[in-house]
Specification:
Blueprint (H helix, E strand, L loop, with lengths): L2 H5 L13 H8 L18 E2 L5 E5 L4 H6 L6 H13 L6 E5 L6 E4 L2 E4 L4 H18 L3 E5 L1 H8 L5 H4 L4 E2 L5 E5 L2 H5 L4 H24 L5
Helix pairs in contact: 4-9
Length: about 220
């Protein structure tokens, strides 16, 4: 693939004229905006409350998500479910999606292991995420991890420096970045995992407060 063709990769040509979450999901099933569709089992579009006040955006589907066709159903998703419960957020009141809609992986024996998507792949898939947010019109978008944060807040954005901030944006009244739950699963020991989980739940409690009151807790 030439550099010129690579630079032109985009899902934009697959976006339907008559937009709704249902029509977008159906159209995304045939997306060939980048080469990832050639290797994944299926497109994994967002799912959840179509009128949600908060949208959670991760990096990409994993092995389990690729097989089931739903976001956040694997180990990281289960950890996210637990964190949401501890923070007082009902899963039914949120919408969940990813910056990239196809699973990027590499084989290790018979296992498919996550491989970080390239910026050009994130950029190619961005039209789907942009349209999802436009359709839902949430009050807050929570970026889970660096890939989601940089897709929505710019490639120079650093979660480590601005974690937990409520940032005014054009896409939604506010956006906030925190860690991806998979990073907690990768913690080197139980103590570190516990500390990281507490910090993650603390971020989500601020999200819960905002959902309930419409105000940013200090």
């Amino acid at each position: 693939m030439t550099k010129q063709k690579t630079a032109e990769l985009s899902a934009a040509q697959f976006i339907p004229e008559n937009k709704s979450l249902k029509s977008l999901k159906r159209a995304a099933e045939a997306c060939q905006g980048c080469d990832l569709y050639k290797f994944a089992i299926q497109t994994v579009f967002g799912a959840g409350n179509a009128h949600a006040k908060v949208v959670f955006v991760g990096e990409q589907p994993g092995d389990g998500e690729d097989k089931e066709g739903l976001p956040f159903v694997g180990p990281a998703g289960k950890l996210l479910d637990k964190a949401l419960e501890l923070a007082g957020i009902r899963k039914s009141e949120a919408y969940f999606t990813n910056a990239v809609k196809h699973f990027k992986f590499e084989w290790q024996g018979k296992r498919r292991l996550h491989k970080k998507p390239r910026p050009i792949e994130v950029h190619a898939c961005y039209p789907w995420l942009d349209e999802e947010i436009k359709e839902i019109k949430p009050d807050l978008v929570v970026c889970l991890g660096a890939t989601a944060a940089q897709a929505l807040l710019g490639n120079k954005f650093k979660v480590t420096q601005r974690r937990g901030e409520f940032i005014e944006s054009d896409g939604a009244p506010y956006m906030m970045a925190t860690v991806h739950p998979s990073s907690i699963l990768r913690a080197p020991d139980e103590e570190s995992r516990h500390e990281q989980m507490e910090a993650f739940v603390s971020d989500l409690k601020r999200v819960a407060s905002f959902i309930r009151t419409g105000k940013i807790a200090q």
